Amino acid sequence: MLPNAIALNSVPQEEGGKQKRIRMSRLLLGLGVLLSGALLALLFTGQSQGTPEDVSALFETIPVVRGDISTRIKAEGRVESSLHYRIHARSAGTVEAVFVREGEPVKEGQLLLKMESAMLESQIRENRISLNILSKHQEVSAKIALDRARIEEARARLRLKELQELVEADLAARDKLNEKRFEFELASSRVQEAQNQLQQLSLEQAAKQEQFKRLMSELREREVRAPHGGILTKVHVPHAGQPITAGATLFDIDDVKKLMVRARVDELDALDVRPGQKVDVRWKGNVKVLGTGTVVYRAPRADRDEDHSYVEIHVTLTSEQGSFLVGNNVLVEVLTEARVATLLVPTDAVKVSREDPFVQVLRDGAIQDIQVKIGVSNPDRIEIREGLSEGDRVVLARREGSLQ
């Protein structure tokens, strides 16, 4: 009987242990849920209130710094000579010889071209002979004739005077006096005639001299010389035997010591371009600046091509001119505005609302929207004139992986 009693008493004890284990499991599960809720609450509370360390972990920030900034306007252009000479024919004729080739350097006064002038040179020789020999002979003969006439006039005057004295003394007849008076008048007329011949000869000689000068001028016009030193960039008369008309274009000469760039600027950008602004010049597609210049001219009106409206500007190169040749295509960057040691932030940090621009700044452990006044800007940075201080940390973006 005793063993059966012991067996009956053990059943309630086993059931009681199982219930204790169930209660313990439920207690542990409840504690786990409470701890998870507390952790989640703490996490969300930390995000809503935030500390400087927590916000720094959530957002990408950058400090406000001082630096230099500039605004530049880019345009494509072509290198040209600032001193260009176009030579025209001063008279019609046929080319006898061309003494230069395109691309050669020339000096001032150098003979470039000569036109046929054999007939003209023959006329000049004849005119020169006429002036040097015949005219001088005629002039000498006329002067001798005048001197003789003056001598005869003086003798006739003397005889007339002597006869007048005799007539007054009743020593000679009056008819003799009339005869001597006639001889004197005749001698005087011969003097006048000789003077007229000499004057006419002088006029003829002057006319021949003018003709000689004209012929020499025509001969010089048939020799085309360089008005200035430079590079012969274009020869419009390639060979001898070619007839040309007066005023025809013969040569183009460029002074490569003084180069300029003729560029086209977008009509809206051109509003900020003014003479006197500094310019950087580089090859297209090359970041290295090869030369600098200055804006010297901006067209007063806009022109239009097939694609857009533009304004032409001229830039005089002031340095490193040896890096360029006439005809090179280049890129110019006009410095329109610049600031030194000013407050700068990345351009992406500035946001625009319906009112003033603003930036988000990390202050006192929180993100604040601060209205600012902006100035000079470029694609990378922008000037802050008011609203921020050096060292302020501006927000760029929320870090990847942070809770939204």
In N-to-C order, the SSE pattern is: HHEEEEEEHHEEEEEEEEEEEEEEEE
Q: Provide the β-strand percentage band.
A: 35-45%
For the residues shown, what is the average pLDDT? 79
Based on secondary structure, the structural category is: alpha+beta
Q: What does the largest sheet look like?
A: 6 strands, antiparallel, barrel
Short précis:
The chain is 38% helix and 35% strand.
SSE topology:
Layout: H1 2-49, H2 52-58, E1 59-63, E2 65-81, E3 84-88, E4 93-98, E5 105-106, E6 111-115, H3 118-168, H4 174-221, E7 223-225, E8 230-235, E9 243-244, E10 249-254, E11 259-266, E12 278-283, E13 291-298, E14 303-304, E15 309-319, E16 329-346, E17 351-352, E18 357-363, E19 366-371, E20 373-377, E21 381-386, E22 393-398
Antiparallel strand pairs: 1-22, 2-11, 2-16, 3-10, 4-6, 4-9, 5-8, 6-7, 8-10, 11-15, 12-13, 12-16, 13-15, 14-15, 16-21, 17-18, 18-19, 18-22, 20-21
Helix pairs in contact: 3-4
3D architecture notes:
The chain has 404 residues and is an alpha+beta fold. It folds into 4 domains: 55-67 and 342-398, Beta Barrel (conserved putative lor/sdh protein from methanococcus maripaludis s2 fold); 72-81 and 255-338, Elongation Factor Tu (Ef-tu), domain 3, CATH 2.40.30.170; 85-114 and 224-254, RNA polymerase II/Efflux pump adaptor protein, barrel-sandwich hybrid domain (OB fold (Dihydrolipoamide Acetyltransferase, E2P)), CATH 2.40.50.100; 117-221. The chain is built from 4 helices and 22 strands. It has helices at 2-49, 52-58, 118-168, 174-221, and strands spanning 59-63, 65-81, 84-88, 93-98, 105-106, 111-115, 223-225, 230-235, 243-244, 249-254, 259-266, 278-283, 291-298, 303-304, 309-319, 329-346, 351-352, 357-363, 366-371, 373-377, 381-386, 393-398. A 6-stranded antiparallel β-barrel has the order 2-11-15-13-12-16. A hairpin with a 2-residue loop joins strand 18 (357-363) and strand 19. It is rod-shaped.
